[in-house]
Amino acid sequence: MTEKMKWSKLYLFFVFILLYTPIFYLILFSFNEGGTMNHFTGFTLEHYSTVLQDSRLIQIVVQTLLLALLSSLISSIIGTLGAIGIYYVKNVRTQEVLLNANNILLVSPDVIIGSSFLLLFTIVGFQLGFVSVLLAHIAFSIPIVVLMVLPSLEEINPSMLKAAEDLGANGFQILWHVILPNILPGILSGFFMAFTYSLDDFAVTFFVTGNGFTTLAVEIYSRARRGVSLEINALSALLFIASLLLVLGYYYLSIYSRRMKKVKRGVAE
Amino acid sequence: MNRLLQFMGTVVVFILLLLGVNLYLSHSSGAATSDTLTIYNWGDYIDPDLITEFEEESGLKVVYETFDSNEAMYTKVQQGGTKYDIVVPSEYMIERMIDEDLLHPLDYAQIEGMEHLVPEFLDLSFDPGNQYSVPYFWGTLGLIYNDKLIEEGSITSWADLWNPEYSDRLMLIDGAREILGLTLQSLGYSLNTKDLNELAEAEAKLSELAPNVKAIVADEIKMYMIEEEAPIAVTFSGEAADMMWENENLHYVLPEEGSNLWFDSIVIPKTAQNISGAHEFISFMLRPENAALNAEYIDYSSPNQTAIEEFIDEEVVSDEQFYPNLADVEHLEVYKNLGLEYIGIYNDIFLKFKMK
Amino acid sequence: MNKKSTQSTMLFPYVLWLALFVFAPLLLLIYQSLLNIDGQFTIENIVTYFTSATYITMTIQSFIFAGFITAVTLLVSYPAAYVLTRTEHKELWRMLLILPTWINILLKAYAFIGILSQSGPVNEFLETIGIGHQQILFTNFSFILVATYIELPFMMMPIMNAINEIDPSLIKASHDLGANEWETLRNIIIPLSMNGVRSGIQAVFIPSLSLFMLTRLIGGNRVITLGTAIEQHFLVTQNWGMGSTIGIVLVVLMFIVMKLTNNTPTRKRGGR
């Protein structure tokens, strides 16, 4: 048993090494004196000072994060409700149609999504800028949220819902007290996947943005012709470290508060 | 349900925080003026100090947006969701935009400094009389090779690419016009040909190149050549200058048969809001000292004669590969807008080549 | 009828989204696919598609590669997800799984170019252990490696969630009945986590059909997928009609995949 655990831990370790290798490589070269990501010629903090002085880049980062948080929050709400709705649909055929429709945006390449959203916005006469990008990001994030929430929903024991109904709970109460707590991991996965999609998207944002609004991905891609400078590595390193600290902080805080509650109530699990 | 609420609360707090920071940043950076000039350019394609200087001098606030390809830029300008005052497309796209009436004619009464430009770069076929455009940077298409892997001086022409010795060693740029164009030039034809027989001949010749091709990539060609992933590549002169800066074993060759002469030029779209500001910006960029600063930042060849003669580092300007004596080089051809039908034909041939 | 009304309020924003951002663009796509480059109505695009050896080969290639990427991702993910659900601090691990996806994909691809190149650390390592330099970039291997890397979290997440949700008493019961670890895994955990696996396959296979950037960056355009062709048509030849036609082909292929993975939430009424 312990032998087996050791092997499986080792496997896990390798998967995470694979996941983090390119990130560490990026961060390592953000300290490179030379201009590129191949030969490490010497240590410097120069790229970091460039980033901190580049107020345009900093503002782009702030706008990017704002957009990503807002769009993933809204798409998680719409997507989760949508997934529950789909789950409740009685007719199997309708359900199938809804699911297929859900995945259309997932299969469409970004250029198609971007260009057709651009056409839609211009047909309606919608002003391009933060709001149009936000709408587009919400739109392409919803299907991934639905996809992440559905499996959790399907695992809910129907007898639990039935029991709640028998006890006279109304629709909202069932949703709030029975369904949502049970699908929380799915919702969180959906939220974070939506966040990822939003941060990573270049093509859709490019088409529907305007009036000075830019995201980090658009900025990075449009720098490709001239070569992406190590300044961007330094920026990514800073963002990565910040999010790592945030994740660790949030995690320990939530463990701590849960423990405190347990202590208070004297509940032993 | 506490955890969900707690989580959403945290997210909302972050959103509000970021909103605050964003508000603060846009207030502190924005000058008091509400007059703006919106520039649409390739990413990292202007010295940022010049923008700051222009803002101080003109009192305008510059909004800088970026694109990564001419065609993507075209779609945005044509759809008209944003009003750009200044755009910097390449020459074939300018021709197309003129044809489709998307550009605002320049008012030379408001522009100073045209006399600084290299005369050969004015009044070209894509914009006769420079009614719509002012050259920003220019360059050629050529070959770059690594002297550690290829004997120095052994490559001088496009035809050398077909040398069977170079099996699986070439890296090509992912562009139908470029690759088909060099094949046509190696056959002695124009890279703007619409003759289907010549194109068929080029297609056959191109398929013979397939065994030599290692990869067909785009902007990342720069990284690959610096890393010595391949010994020979087809690339633009501006990119080549960057590569040679990073790796001293690399050499750029302007092929004997001729080459493509490309321009990125400043234009004013029809939808522009701040026409006078746009003209002011063009004059600002034409000033030799500014053109020189920009050329030194970007490392591309400047079209500004005065800047070349008086301001840019002598060593850079004397390099014949990047500032060739134009009279010496034959068959430097500028791309013409071939029309969608022929662009389609060129791309189909190239796609078939890639599938090999 | 309280329940019914809550249900329709819940579905309302979702259906609105479907109408505005799925069906409207889809109609636009169908309309465009019926136009040629001169803007005239025609069915020539679809005819071209089905009569061109280039496009057919491309479709088959895309399918094979997407299938391969999905299979490799699944093989790597399932054991990892399974082990993860058995560790302490799984919430933390879940976050650490997502974190790498927040770094720009272009930058990560550039990092891979650095790592896998002729002068990169991998080749240096191969050199020191005596295998010698290998061409790693521009091979199917490197393309699938990087694609798997990108897709890994999208597969692991739903599988983790699904395994997590399995009633622990079932596993306990299985052990009590004398089943060993492997039998429990095969008879209880894998069948009960199929919903997660299905979600994962859809989240990976469907987008893999239209990969385009990695095929150029890492694959050196040796592999051409439908995504590449669409990108070309939209951004280079500006033949939006042909691009839209291929887009529709992708959507239809997706329907077929959905049918095959048969994702209709089956209600297990009292099944447990």
Write a structural description.
The complex is a heterotrimer of chains A (269), B (356) and C (272). Chain A is mainly α and 269 residues long. Chain A has helices at residues 2-29, 46-53, 55-88, 92-107, 110-124, 130-154, 158-166, 171-200, 203-208, 216-222, 230-265. Chain A has one domain: Orthogonal Bundle (MetI-like fold), CATH 1.10.3720.10. Chain A is 80% helix and 0% strand. Chain B is 42% helix and 17% strand. Chain B has helices spanning 2-29, 48-58, 70-79, 91-99, 176-186, 196-209, 221-226, 237-246, 275-286, 288-298, 305-311, 314-317, 340-355; strands spanning 36-42, 61-67, 86-87, 133-146, 170-173, 213-217, 232-236, 250-253, 259-267, 332-333. The longest helix of chain B is centred in the first third of the chain and has 28 residues, at 2-29. Chain C is an all-alpha fold and 272 residues long. Chain C has a single domain (55-260), classed as MetI-like (MetI-like fold), CATH 1.10.3720. Helices cover 74% and strands 0% of the residues of chain C. In chain C, α10 (194-209) packs antiparallel against α13. The longest helix of chain C has 33 residues, at 53-85. The chains are: A mainly alpha (269), B alpha/beta (356), C mainly alpha (272). Chains in contact: A-B, A-C, B-C. Chains A and C meet through α1, α3, α4, α5 and α6 of A and α1, α3, α4, α5 and α7 of C.
Q: What is the end-to-end distance of chain B?
A: 58 Å
Weakly predicted, low-confidence segments of chain B: none
- Beta content of chain C comes to under 5%
SS-derived structural category of chain C:
mainly alpha
Q: Count of DSSP helices of chain C?
A: 13
Under CATH, the topology of the largest domain in chain B is which?
Answer: D-Maltodextrin-Binding Protein, domain 2
Tell me about the biggest sheet of chain C?
Answer: none
Our count of domains of chain C comes out at: 1
Annotation, overall tally of beta strands of chain B: 10
Strand content of chain B: 15-25%
**Termini of chain C, distance in Å?**
28 Å
CATH architecture of the largest domain in chain B: 3-Layer(aba) Sandwich
